[in-house]
Amino acid sequence: MAPRWRYRVTSVVGTAVLTVVAVWIANLPVIQEVFAAVPYFGRPAPAVLSNGDLTFAASTTLVATLAAMWPVFKPRPRRILDTILLTQKRVMLAMVGLAALGYYDYDYALPRPTLMLATIVLLLVLPAWMVSIRRRPSSLSRAVIVGDDPEAMKAILNTVDIPILGYVSPPSSYSTKSNRSKPAAELTDGGQATSGLDELPNLGGMSRLDEVFVEYDVDTALIAFTETDREEFFGTLAECHEHGVSAHVHRDHADSVLTASVAGGDIVEIDLEPWDWQDHVAKRVFDIAFSITALTMLSPLILGIAIAVKFDSSGPVLYAQERTAEFGDTFTVYKFRSMETDAEDGTGAKLSEEDRGEVDPRVTRVGRLIRKTHLDEIPQLWSIFVGDMSVVGPRPERPELDRDIENSVGEWRRRWFVRPGLTGLAQINGATGHEPAEKLRYDIEYIRRQSFWFDLKVVIRQLWLAGADAVRVFTQSSDS
User: Fold this and answer.
1) pTM above 0.70?
2) What percent of the chain has pLDDT over 90?
3) In this structure, what are the phi and psi dihedrals at residue 334, rounded to the nearest 5 degrees?
4) Which residue blocks in 298-364 are alpha helix, DSSP H?
């Protein structure tokens, strides 16, 4: 059995056994009595479970713990402190999930003493177990090159002094947007290697990447893609994260969104944790819950705004626009119409002067009010619900404006690494499309720091700012 699969099996089996043992220990009468005597916990009455109830409690806890601990089962090299903190974080996530499940469905509720005692035991024993079996951080040993950029692949080959088993590349021709005069070199599944890589065998195409990782027991992927905002690149990161393979890139081709730093050696490591599927699931659940709740609570306000827009000026209530989505795709976004219907006739798309604090003559009276209070954005909750947008992320721009901004800010496409959002770090810090470099800086910072809790902080800050704006607008209106 390969070391990574040995780690997976050992970590899962060990976690399962320790979870069942923790519930059993928490159910011992002597432990319950001692726990009930501690004043700090409010003297909960002992709750010793019968055999049937104990089996059910152990099974429920086991499912929740295994689901929450899944990222820890990825065979990634980790330091001791990182292993402890990650394991404890996941244990708390499992226990909070169990408590929430019991709150919504009493049939699944664990007695409070059992839940609290099991949590304490797991917070002690699981980190110790994971530390004892963890993969130690080590130097690169069994590596493959994955990419479609021969220059970057050769740069890696000439830099590293470890054995390279071969390379994996998509079945497509290579050419750069920046230099179309360069001859194209075929990099096909099992085909001829590019000049300069003749010494390396082609291990196959991207469809075989997971098989290559397993078959050759790869521990390091040296990534060399022409562009890092395409799905093949992120597919590689996903496979690396799934198989516990460290992802590295040459410092000359490093992307600041993905690497913590390019200081030090010529080969730097990509941070794979932001691409954990559980984080994406948690974010999507939050998006759906937020959009449904907001649409329900704001439904009377939505009706009122629709009536006001309709009576204020002729034209439709909603305004539809094409916006840039994740990976450069496009989607249709809806807003309450805040401009005259012929606002862009003869001028095309352009940034509103209101973003600079000036007066835009194209904006209607109602439009000015709903813009200042951000109420024109409410229909985008539907885009969040259907999955085109997220609650938090870089604000999507119109494709034609994206192309214009790219001419002055060459790294603008890095914003496309994640799903666009209703609000974001740039918005709560006051950066607008009139300051693309500043906006990009905040967007990249968000991509690097994104998590459920960070999203929650951004949302709370945005709600506070929106409330303050609404109070200021209505105060000024009443004074006048």
Assistant:
1) no
2) 13
3) -120, 140
4) 299-312
